[in-house]
Design a protein that fits this description.
It contains 14 helices and 24 strands. It is of the alpha/beta class and 423 residues long. Helix 8 runs parallel beside helix 12 and helix 10 packs parallel to helix 12.
């Protein structure tokens, strides 16, 4: 298992180019099951979850051709599509479940394993009840045998009005994809409005789908018979972007971050300004300078889009460890997303957890130590802490990081971090 060895503290200066969004690319790739004609997708991030999704599509009968150093793919159908999505491919990645709906929509049958992914919800796991209940409303029938969902429908799925009881990014994406070639009109209420959902809709509409927003959290999908050839560029990764913005703020750094529309992360940039960062934005560039003294934030609360994203809370926790006083973070999306707090304590952080609230004493001088990543964003937090720590930090289990950050060590080295990968 690879490890990162980081010698700190480092000041990060220079330019960073943000990669394509993993969480936008995954549902877009899953939706290619609906197509008979070839699809070209550009700006794919070269991360493990994307490879896993491409392998999954290949196992289902898609032909994948790579261009432009694997950042661009052309996906087309072979003559023999399959309907079996195996445990060996889904066990590492939550988004694998997104092939279930399109397989049933297109071929009216599927055998799909329950998915894996980061453990963020304690004993509750990562449920898919919202996905399954909503797909049933479209006419999918299923039974569960030996960890697999055996699903089928009598012909096409049929459009319905569906109100999600709570907001889920994945369930919203899954239902949008599954309704595109269904019979009639589907109206979804309680839809997630994350930019990755918007990117999926833009992609599907670019191929002739008929999806529109009919309210703040409501989407109408009028079923079409088939989708056209299309070529689409995936949006930049807002979490990678946010991670580098935190890195600049944390290290008194000075970064020019390119390849991303700053308007999409207004909330995060406002929060960083509150901590003292100086930020200028132009079109698809962010220029960010870290302050001499980081200011605390009283109560940072994770929320659905528009609010502060759960996927950046671990990185902000590191920043708040170095702030000028006590801060807190309340996690509202996942139940157990503080595993990194224990590891940060090994580097000297003073954090106490009470249910979904973490209280972070500031003024920490991190001292390098050996730490272990527990999930994707936790690994980013530990790397950031290592960069600002005095001495050597060794971060193990970086396979978590490789799932979602494209060559993070190369990007960090270029801007002055002393980080190397040990195999
Ligand atoms: N939930 C249910 N039942 C369901 C689905 C979700 O109870 O059927 C609960 C979840 O357990 C959670 C909440 O609803 O408590 C929200 O989960 P959501 O479905 O919105 O999350 P997701 O679709 O599984 C995506 C991202 C996550 C990101 C969340 C929240 C992808 C592949 N994953 O997950 O990203 O944290 O939305 O924004 O898009 C990451 O990239 O590190 C990551 C974990």
């Amino acid at each position: 298992m690879d490890k990162f060895v980081i010698k700190g503290p480092c000041v990060l200066k220079g330019q960073v180019l943000i990669s394509g969004s993993k969480n936008a690319a995954l549902p877009i790739l899953a939706s290619t099951i609906l197509f008979d004609k070839p699809v070209v997708i550009k700006n794919l991030p070269r991360v493990r979850d994307i490879n896993t999704m491409l392998n999954l599509l290949r196992s289902l009968g898609s032909k994948i051709e790579f261009f432009d150093n694997r950042k661009k793919v052309r996906i087309s159908k072979t003559k023999k599509p399959k309907h079996f999505a195996s445990y060996s491919l889904l066990k590492t990645m939550r988004a694998g479940i997104l092939v279930l709906g399109p397989l049933v929509a297109k071929y009216h049958k599927s055998i799909t394993s329950f998915p894996g992914g980061c453990v963020l919800n304690g004993n509750s796991g990562r449920p898919i009840d919202l996905h399954l209940k909503a797909l049933q409303k479209l006419g999918m029938k299923y039974e569960i045998k030996k960890g697999y969902i055996y699903a089928k429908s009598k012909g096409k799925l049929r459009g319905k009005n569906i109100k999600f009881p709570s907001i889920s990014v994945g369930a919203s994406q899954h239902l949008i994809i599954s309704s595109v070639i269904s019979d009639g009109t589907t109206t979804l209420q309680g839809v997630a409005t994350e930019p990755e959902v918007v990117d999926l809709i833009n992609f599907l509409n670019s191929a002739g789908a008929n999806i529109k927003w009919v309210g703040k959290r409501a989407c109408q999908i009028v079923g079409v018979n088939s989708l056209n050839e299309t070529s689409y560029t995936i949006m930049g990764d807002r979490i990678e972007n946010g991670t580098f913005c935190v890195a600049a703020t944390l290290t008194k750094g000075n970064l020019l971050i390119k390849g991303f529309d700053p308007k999409i992360i207004k909330t995060e940039l406002e929060l960083l300004k509150k901590t003292g960062a100086k930020i200028k934005t132009i079109k698809d560039e962010i220029h960010i300078k870290g302050p001499q003294k980081i200011k605390k934030i009283n109560n940072l609360v994770t929320k659905e889009y528009g609010g502060f994203p759960t996927d950046l809370a671990p990185q902000f926790m590191v920043l708040l460890c170095k702030a000028n006083g006590r801060s807190s973070i309340t996690e509202n999306i996942f139940k157990s997303r503080f595993m990194h707090a224990m590891e940060l304590q090994r580097l000297g952080a003073k954090i106490s957890i009470n249910n979904s609230k973490a209280t972070i004493e500031g003024n920490t001088n991190f001292i390098g130590a050996e730490v272990m990543s527990s999930d994707l964003r936790a690994s980013a937090a530990l790397i950031l802490a290592g960069i600002s720590a005095k001495g050597t930090t060794v971060v193990s289990r970086v396979y978590h990081c490789d799932r979602g950050y494209e060559k993070i060590e190369n990007k960090l080295k270029k801007i002055g971090a002393k980080i190397k990968r040990l195999n």
